UniProtKB/TrEMBL annotation:
MF (Gene Ontology): 2 iron, 2 sulfur cluster binding; metal ion binding; oxidoreductase activity, acting on the aldehyde or oxo group of donors
SUPFAM superfamilies: 2Fe-2S ferredoxin-like, CO dehydrogenase ISP C-domain like
Iron-sulfur as UniProt keyword: yes
Domain spans labelled 2Fe-2S ferredoxin-type: 17-93
PANTHER family: OXIDOREDUCTASE WITH IRON-SULFUR SUBUNIT, OXIDOREDUCTASE, IRON-SULPHUR BINDING SUBUNIT-RELATED-RELATED
Protein name, as recorded: Xanthine dehydrogenase YagT iron-sulfur-binding subunit
This protein's UniProt keywords: 2Fe-2S, Iron, Iron-sulfur, Metal-binding, Oxidoreductase
Species name: Bryocella elongata
Gene3D superfamilies: 3.10.20.30, [2Fe-2S]-binding domain
Keyword Iron-sulfur part of the UniProt annotation: yes
């Protein structure tokens, strides 16, 4: 019986793409299959396993990372589509062994249980705090006074955090602690 080389030939003929990304401050250049998602690139090729594969459909938020300062679900982001971008993963938030203020707040407020969603929650919260600081509005923002909206002096209330973090699912239900951690990090950032 002759060996079947059709799969090998098919994968050898797939188009590739030369990709350069700045991952957590380190420039990486590599050749990728054009179908590669950012999540698979991070986990399988760049040894960044902190970003988790949850639903693989963009619904749970476990794979959330920041691309050029904006939150994305990396399981739905084709790596080729972000060539030349800055990517910040959970591994890039800490300074060596020193946790970021947000990571420390998650510890202090017990913002996790099983921990599977935690990297996505923290990555999402990190970008969300930057969005809030620059004055980006959410649906809840319009429930505040007109003056607060116009001046950008919006308080990051519990309701506001829940709205802005709605795309990140926690199967354990640690939402109250996650909200407390995010609000504490916001207060530290303002202090």
């Amino acid at each position: 019986m002759m060996p079947d080389h059709s799969q090998e030939q098919a994968s050898a003929s797939l188009p590739t793409f030369p990709l350069t990304l700045n991952i957590n401050g380190e420039t990486r250049s590599l050749e990728i299959d054009i179908r590669t998602t950012l999540l698979d690139l991070l986990r399988e090729r760049l040894n960044k396993p902190g970003t988790k594969k949850g639903c693989d459909h963009g619904l749970c938020g476990a794979c959330t990372v920041s691309v050029n300062g904006e939150r994305v679900v990396s399981c739905l982001t084709l790596a080729a589509s972000i060539d030349g971008s800055d990517v910040l993963t959970i591994e890039g938030l800490a300074d060596g062994a020193e946790l970021s203020s947000l990571q420390q707040c998650f510890l202090e407020h017990d913002g996790f249980q099983c921990g599977y969603c935690t990297p996505g929650q923290i990555s999402s919260a990190h970008a969300m705090l930057a969005e809030h600081a620059r004055g980006d509005l959410s649906m809840v923002s319009f429930e505040t006074t007109r003056e607060a909206v116009l001046t950008g002096q919006l308080e990051l209330t519990e309701h506001e955090v829940r709205e802005r973090m709605a795309g990140n699912i926690c199967r354990c239900g640690a939402y109250a602690n996650i909200v407390a951690a995010v609000r504490a990090a916001d207060q530290r950032g303002r202090a």
